[in-house]
TrEMBL record, chain A:
GO terms for molecular function: 4 iron, 4 sulfur cluster binding; metal ion binding; molybdopterin cofactor binding; oxidoreductase activity. CDD domains: MopB_CT_Fdh-Nap-like, MopB_Nitrate-R-NapA-like. This is 4Fe-4S Mo/W bis-MGD-type domain-containing protein. Residues 44-100 form the 4Fe-4S Mo/W bis-MGD-type domain. Pfam families: Molybdop_Fe4S4 (PF04879), Molybdopterin (PF00384), Molydop_binding (PF01568). The keyword Kinase does not apply. InterPro entries: Asp_de-COase-like_dom_sf, MoPterin_dinucl-bd_dom, Mopterin_OxRdtase, Mopterin_OxRdtase_4Fe-4S_dom, Prok_molybdopt-oxidoreductase. Keywords: 4Fe-4S, Iron, Iron-sulfur, Metal-binding.
UniProtKB/TrEMBL annotation, chain B:
It comes from Amycolatopsis japonica. It comes from the Bacteria. This is Uncharacterized protein.
Length: 780, 152
């Protein structure tokens, strides 16, 4: 197939249909896109990788010609994408190469960032780091990383922070995207680790998408769904979303439903669904008795949530709730997926746990088509969670389990007390608060752009701009955040370095280095190793703490850390990943080909000795103690966690009558640092907008394209209006538009100017979906 | 029968506790989780107080004759900074513990009276108090090292 044969994927986002029948394999199709004027025969070599521009992590090969990346091709044999690529993967993953990249370190001199060299920049970092260690100790240091680095880099950073410095203040922007996914699995199943797999789409006869606009967030996965819908025996789809999305439309066309609860009321809806399952006896009583704990508490908690009561809270028809529950309760194989509509909303973990509960009640886990996918927002988010560069200990270890901490201390040959474990590692929102209060004075930000992605941007800018906060920014481009840095380190990006990463369904891919990074840019791994060397971190025997130099050695070190844990990587190797394509962990001696689904036997990771977490009170986030956990004797049974619905922290009122919900759309990723520089994607969505319902627009006197002011108690944006498909009373703003490409005119367009500094009590994921705003037309 | 004295004590301490949670919540608005959780818990304590009404109707409540030292003192304001937050949460912890043992004592009377309704109420509400204590302990454990070591 040549490049011209691939249809334009800006307009045709999901490509042409390849229908298939339930239980059949999803047909293969190699999507390819090459630079204009380059044919397949011109390509010097194809280099193995996988895409990092959405959480799907599609396997692909990078086309290299004359030392440049000139295109990309989906890998047909891979279990994730069967050769398909989405518009971001095709047009955005390689086109930014070489243009306006950071090529030399920058340091701040007299208020300005000026070009420097690596020695000078690293000296500055190490000097400040040591000064603060002497003066205030490791609690003065914070690390805020990404969902974009490779496994090897996260693991190395985790060891530096936890065993080198000994700071608990490490998190990733995965806190903004996937923290609730991990939290919900820990609460229900005892450990992080996705139970289901993407192949469940091939087998299901009902598909529920909870707050998951898969059509825009994971386009390739959505084409798999569309192909099922176009084939014989299509599944019935149910969508939960306040907007009439493509997913919602497909749901209705499939004979399913679109439920559009008011933002902030998901938990009421879920309690209603669980109650319907229980009162109609659509539950597998044997499974519940043998494999779960907490049924009577759950039953009691959901009892008040009749369809009528839920209808009132959520603003939906009671009948639709009952019908949705019937589809869930009576279908043979149900697959559920969950994403930001739940994760970034009120009672996030509680609502995501209720999805797990629906599956536990029906015994619908670990079998083809019967599974749950607690999704990720980012491709390598899973690795932040696994490797301990975020608010977790490496290898899904439990900070409250002394044996687990001892294992790490032995592995790293350090004193147990070096590894902070007096409470869970500090979550991102708290790291920023400590920086605001001045107790964190050194903040190292890698591969993320909080000046656009964090909630309440006016506050974040103020923190980043503080005199007494030393900010290091490590990235490929001069981002909005880099403008606040004391030191900017130029990082190699995808295709310019080697490493592995793992996607939402546990599939590990190897990404090889295709080209040299521009100028003096270095792989993130090399930067972290350089810091460790200059800081002279030592183990108990006086040897260097970090004993590895290359990505492959870092991978082997990680394998040892993962040994015997749920995320066991010991059966993998770079060579094995080169021989085939993606492999799903756990992969060890007994399971050399990986593992498609977890928990097929109904035995969960909940024993007190193995579990990653003893659990929380879903209402407050109070932690269950080790003693309480042991007393429950979970012994492999899953928890049916319950929580009543409570009103969200901010509701629309007289001053701010609309609920503002924000989200990602198909043509951009993250803060557009890469996708905004890919011409096709940039042209497709150059500006943000505000989507309002037709009836609201009429009342506001707004027509399509009018400039509107959207304002919350925290900030404002001025963007054109789109008369759209949100439910009345709700405004949608696409987030992650920043300011690097606006010519520096004020701060009127990032959705996060408006969003609030509030988070879920268990997952600590911020609430991006429920701010109260007012809207008016801007005259002129 | 002196149960009325303890019901009075319970009633007063629940009101004091709810007020104290509100006070700390409002006083620490810059810690959004503290504010939100305190207000949430205050609302739930109000519900406990309401649920106590039929019991009070049955046994009466005597608020006059308790010795002064049985009163749980409320909060007069909140403190600032990391250590201030810790101290305020610790005050809540003390007040919540006071309520906790008061429920226990009332529960013992309910056993002796074989009052199933009161027993059920005590069981529910002891869980609620335990939720308060658990959250306070969790939040204080999180905040303590930073406040005591790194804060300036």
């Amino acid at each position: 197939m040549n490049a011209d044969a691939v249809p334009e994927r800006i307009a045709e986002v999901w490509g042409a249909r390849t229908p298939y029948r339930r239980g059949d394999a999803w047909p293969r199709r190699a999507d390819i896109h090459l630079e204009e004027g380059v044919g397949e025969s011109d390509v010097d070599r194809w280099v193995r990788s996988a895409c990092v521009l959405c959480s799907n992590g599609c396997a692909c090969d990078i086309a290299v010609k004359d030392g440049r990346m000139v295109g990309v091709r989906g890998r047909e044999t891979d279990l994730v994408n069967h050769g398909r690529m989405g518009p971001k993967g095709l047009y955005g993953s390689w086109q930014w190469n070489g243009k306006d990249r950071l090529t030399r370190p920058l340091i701040r001199r007299d208020g300005e960032l000026v070009e420097s060299d690596w020695d000078t920049a690293m000296d500055l970092i190490v000097r400040r780091s040591q000064e603060l260690l002497d003066e205030a100790g490791p609690l003065s240091h914070g690390f805020y990383t990404s969902g974009q680095l490779f496994l090897e880099e996260y693991y190395t950073l985790g060891v530096i922070g936890k065993a080198g410095l000994g700071t608990p203040h490490m998190d990733g922007n995965t806190r903004l995207c996937t923290a609730t996914s991990a939290a919900a699995m820990k609460e229900s199943f005892g450990s992080d680790g996705q139970p289901g797999t993407y192949a469940d789409i091939d087998h299901c006869d009902a598909l529920f998408l909870f707050g998951h606009n898969m059509a825009e967030t994971q386009t390739v996965l959505w084409s798999r769904v569309l192909d099922r819908l176009a084939g014989p025996e299509p599944p019935v789809v149910v969508a939960v979303d306040p907007r009439r999305t493509k997913v919602a439309e497909a749901a209705v066309e499939s004979g399913g439903l679109h439920l559009a609860p008011l933002p902030g009321t998901n938990q009421a809806l879920m309690n209603g669904l669980v109650r319907e399952l229980i009162v109609n006896k659509w539950i597998d009583e044997d499974y519940v008795a043998a494999h779960t704990l907490g049924f009577s508490e759950l039953e009691k908690t959901v009892e008040p949530y009749t369809p009528a009561h839920v209808g009132e809270i959520c603003g939906i028809e009671p009948d639709t709730l009952a019908r949705a529950a019937e589809i869930f309760g009576t279908s043979e194989r149900v697959l559920s997926t969950v994403l930001q509509g739940f994760y970034q909303s009120h009672q996030a973990t509680a609502a995501a746990c209720q999805v797990n509960n629906l599956h536990l009640l029906r015994g619908m886990l670990g079998k083809p088509g019967g599974g749950v996918l607690q999704m990720n927002g980012q491709p390598t988010a899973q690795n932040t969670r696994e490797c301990g560069a975020d608010g977790d200990l490496p290898g899904f270890r439990n900070w409250e389990n002394p044996d687990h901490v001892r294992q790490l201390a032995e592995l790293w040959n350090v004193d147990e007390l070096t590894i902070p474990h007096w409470s869970p590692p500090t979550h991102a929102m708290q790291i920023w608060r400590y920086a605001e209060q001045g107790s964190i004075r050194f903040l190292w930000i890698s591969a993320t752009n909080p000046a656009v992605s964090m909630p309440e941007l006016p506050r974040i800018r103020e923190i980043l701009g503080k005199e007494d906060l030393f900010v290091v920014v490590q990235d490929g481009f001069r981002t909005e955040t880099a403008e606040f840095a004391d030191v900017v380190l130029p990082a190699a990006l995808w295709g310019e370095k080697q490493g592995t990463f793992t996607n939402a369904n546990r599939t590990v891919h190897l990404s090889e280095k295709a080209v040299e990074p521009p100028g003096e840019a270095r792989a993130d791994l090399d930067v972290f190793l350089d810091y460790a060397r200059r800081m002279d971190f030592r183990d108990r025997d006086g040897d260097p703490l970090i004993g590895w130099q290359t990505p492959e050695d870092a991978f082997r070190a990680w394998q040892e850390c993962s040994r015997g844990r749920l995320c066991d990587y010991t059966g993998l190797s770079y060579d094995k990943l080169r021989g085939g394509s993606g492999i799903q962990w756990p992969c060890d001696g007994e399971r050399p080909d990986g593992t498609e689904r977890l928990y097929a036997d109904g035995v969960f990771t909940t024993s007190s000795a193995a579990c990653e977490d003893f659990g929380h009170d879903l209402l407050t986030g109070g932690t269950v103690s080790a003693t309480e956990h042991k007393a429950l004797h979970p012994d492999g049974r899953a928890f049916l966690k319950a929580a009543e619905y409570t009103a969200p922290p901010e509701e629309p009122g007289e001053r701010y009558p609309f609920v503002c919900t924000t989200g990602r759309t198909v043509y951009h990723f993250h803060t557009r640092t890469k996708t905004g520089r890919a011409p096709k994607l940039r042209r497709a969505a150059p500006e943000p907008w505000a989507e309002v319902a037709a009836s609201d627009a009429a009342e506001l006197g707004v027509t399509d394209g009018d400039l509107v002011l959207v304002e919350s108690a925290r900030g404002r944006v001025e963007v054109p209006a789109r008369i759209g498909r949100v439910r009345p009373g709700v405004v949608f703003l696409p987030f992650h538009y920043g300011y690097w490409d606006t010519g520096g005119e004020g701060h009127p367009r990032a959705a996060n100017e408006l969003t609030m500094t509030e988070w879920d009590p268990v997952s600590k994921q911020p609430l991006f979906k429920i701010g109260a705003v007012r809207v008016r037309k801007v005259e002129g | 029968m002196h149960l009325a004295t303890y019901l009075g004590l319970l009633h007063t301490s629940l009101n004091t506790l709810a007020d104290a949670f509100r006070e700390v919540g409002r006083g620490h608005g810059e810690e959004p989780d503290v504010e939100h959780t305190c207000l949430l818990l205050a609302g739930r304590i109000d519900r406990q107080t309401d649920a106590l009404a039929p019991i009070v109707e049955r046994y009466g409540e005597d608020r006059e004759e308790e010795p002064e030292r049985l009163h749980a003192a409320g909060l007069e304001g909140t403190r600032s900074g990391g250590v201030g937050l810790l101290r305020d949460l610790q005050d809540l912890y003390a007040l919540s513990s006071f309520t906790d043992i008061t429920w226990t004592v009332v529960g013992q009377a309910a056993q002796g009276l074989r009052d199933r309704e009161l027993l059920d109420l005590v069981e529910d509400h002891e869980q609620e108090t335990s939720r308060q204590l658990t959250w306070l302990r969790t939040r204080m454990k999180q905040a303590a090292p930073q406040a005591l070591i790194a804060a300036r």
